Amino acid sequence: MSVNQARRSLLKGVLSATAAALFAALPRFAFSAWPEQAFRTKNIPDTLQALFGTASVITDTKGITLSVTDLAENGAVVPVTVSSTLPGVDNITLLVDKNPNTLVAQFMLAPGVKPFIKTNIKMAETSRVIALVRSEGKLYSTNKKVRVTLSGCSN
Amino acid sequence: MENTIKIRATLENGVTTVKLQILHPMDTGLFKDPKTGNVIPAYFIKELRCEHNGKVVLEAVWGIAISKNPYLSFSFEGGAAGDTVKVSWTDNKEQSGSGKAQISAA
Lengths: 155, 106
Known about the structure:
The complex is a heterodimer. By secondary structure, chain A is an alpha+beta fold.
C-alpha cells in the first residue's frame, strides 16, 4: 500500500466515522427546518414571500372554511378550525396580521390527510385571522376579523 | 419528557380523527414576570410530527402564537382499528417528547 493509498483509506475511515457520529447525534427526528425567517415577519406579504417565495394568493371564500369566533373574550385561547373542499391540499397555514409575528403555524399534510385542522391560537389584539391553503401548487386564502377583549399576550 | 401528551385516535367511516393535547407552557418571550419584573424567556414547541404505523401523515411548525398546552385535531384516510398513531415534538430548548395511541373504532 503506497503512502497515498494508506492516507486515502485512513481519510475514508475518518470521514465515515464522522458521518456516523453526526448521524447518531441527530435528534430522533429531524425534518423540514423551522422557518425562522418566516416566523420573524411582521406583515402578510413578507410572510408569504418567506414561506412560499410568492405573495400571490387567490382569495377563495367558498373553497376554504375558516371557523373562528367573532368575539374572543380571551385572546390567549382562540379556537380555530380550517377545512377545505379544494383538491390535493398539502399545506394549511394560519396567520394573524396584528400579532407581534404574523405567522402562527404551518401544517404539512401527507396524501390521504383531510384538509382539516383544528387548534387554539393566541391573539394580541383585534385582528384578521387568515387561513391559507395550498391546493395543487396554488395558494388560496380566506380571512375573518376577530374582536379581542383581553389580549392573549399576557401569558 | 414523559406524560406530556394525550392522544386519541378514532376511526369512523374510514376516516381516522386524531385529537391531541401537549402539556407545554408556550411562553412567548414578550412578557415580564409580574413578581420579578424579569422577562419570561420564550419557551415554545417549534416542531410537531404525527405518524400512522411509522409513516408521516402530518408535520407542523409552530411559533409563539399557539396557545399554552397546545391542542390539535386532524384526520386522515386509511387507518384501521389497532393501528398506532405516534406524535413527537421538539421545542426551542431542544427538549422533545412523544406519545402513542391505538386507533379505536367509534
